[in-house]
Amino acid sequence: MDYTEFFSRRAKLSRPSPIRRYAKMVRDSTTPLVNMAPGYTSDERSHFVGAKFELRDGSSLELDKEDMRIAQQYNNSDGIVPLREFLTDVTVKLHNPPNFGDPNEEKALRVIVTGGNLHALGIATATLLNEGDKCLLPEYGYSSFMGQLKLMNVDFLSYRVESDGPSIEHLEETLSRWNPEDKENWDKRPKVLTIVPNGGNPTGETTSLEKRHKIYALARKYNLIIIEDDAYYFLQFSESRIPSLLSMDTDGRVVRCDTFSKFMGPGFRAGWLSGPNALVTKMLFELQYMMQHASVLTQVTLNKLLRQWGMEEFLRNANDQRDFYWKRRDFAQQSAEKHLKGLATWTVPQAGMFLWIKATVIDDGEKFLTDHAIKNRFMMTPGSIFAHDHQAPCPYLRLAFTPCTEDKLDEGIKALATALRTALREAADEKQVKT
């Protein structure tokens, strides 16, 4: 593939951070050096010299003086070496990317550490999109990511989503406007398609394997880069995980975003980005100028835990998290059946953290929550903030079933039902007054 045509004007101008070049020279040197290049603080003045964490399973994790020395200094922009190597091993084990070890250096898989998925999405889109470029997005999507794109003045092209993922017919209909024989028109096509394949946020759908193959075929036909935003990969509610788009990427056109947020904790602000070296390296340059590197303290802590666990224990813990939230999903579904019948419909997600609820007795979820949520002692997220047009009334509500205990979850869903009945009565009374 010729990756040049996919780079934004910003990416075409980007070069490695010059100050980071000298850090690399020191790291690569086999000769001992008196290193007076970096603006490091003195290790003699570091305040933290050790740490001990108590783990949920009763064991502990200790960071020694050397760990803390590393944690408090600058490090590699693409991540500390042992963590990056572990995450590369995880990516290869779970996805077996066809471009891993590819002799074509530009296409070969590269993995870098990021500050979580939103950060990864930010550096990916800054590398691939200019102001006014078109980007294919689901009709409802993560509001913070859409906010990033709006600040870039990107033109949204919405595709419909069904219970098993994007509507292939709608995607084909949208893309058929561009003909490769008409070069001027072809160059104006959308070059990036974003997808949350598992447990879409907020809608909860998981894309079937059949549709994943069809989406990849469309990406080949129309020469698209796919950004696979897979925050909920480890929260698929089945014993086996559906193969990722990265796993079928023979061309080197998938950029994949993974995160520790959903199975380790969002406060870590850490994740990893993988894809063809030519694209990921440009994204790394963007990362260098934005933040130098992800938090080294976070990286050291996570690496120490992952190394203490090893690969099999890491995967067992990921499955344990899945099973916990799987049970919580089932409870939320049962509670919704008990309290919300006749007031709303909802999807039962096959992955992720949310019930996507359509309230059948209201038209505007945002107004409903403003008027009724606090007084009824619950809160949810209005569906309108996930729509491309935030101002249009929207009857959808997003219910997160992960943060509450089962008792509190049932209490909250019952309170939602009470509020919906109140809103229905108020609407009926208002209509009667008008007539």
Task: Summarize the entry for a quick read.
By secondary structure, this protein is α/β, with parallel strands linked by helices.
Give the topology, please:
Layout: H1 9-13, H2 18-28, E1 51-54, E2 60-63, H3 65-71, H4 81-95, E3 109-114, H5 117-128, E4 134-138, H6 143-151, E5 155-159, E6 161-162, E7 165-166, H7 168-175, H8 183-186, E8 192-195, H9 209-221, E9 225-229, E10 254-259, E11 271-276, H10 277-291, H11 296-309, H12 311-339, E12 344-346, E13 354-359, H13 365-372, E14 381-382, E15 396-400, H14 406-434
Parallel strand pairs: 4-5, 4-8, 8-9, 9-10
Antiparallel strand pairs: 1-2, 3-11, 6-7, 10-11, 12-13, 13-15, 14-15
Helix pairs in contact: 3-11, 5-6, 5-10, 12-14
Q: Would you mind describing this structure in some detail?
A:
It is a single chain. With 435 residues, the protein is α/β, with parallel strands linked by helices. Strands 3-11-10-9-8-4-5 form a seven-stranded mixed β-sheet, with helices on both faces. A four-stranded antiparallel β-sheet has the order 12-13-15-14. A two-stranded antiparallel sheet has the order 1-2. The relative contact order is 0.13.
Percent strand: 5-15%
Using only C-alpha atoms, the radius of gyration works out to 24 Å
Q: How much helix is in the residues?
A: 40-55%
| Major beta sheet, strand line-up | 3-11-10-9-8-4-5
Largest sheet: 7 strands, mixed
Poorly predicted segments: none
Please, what is the average pLDDT? 92
Number of helices: 14
Extended strand count: 15
The helix-strand sequence is HHEEHHEHEHEEEHHEHEEEHHHEEHEEH
Backbone shape: globular
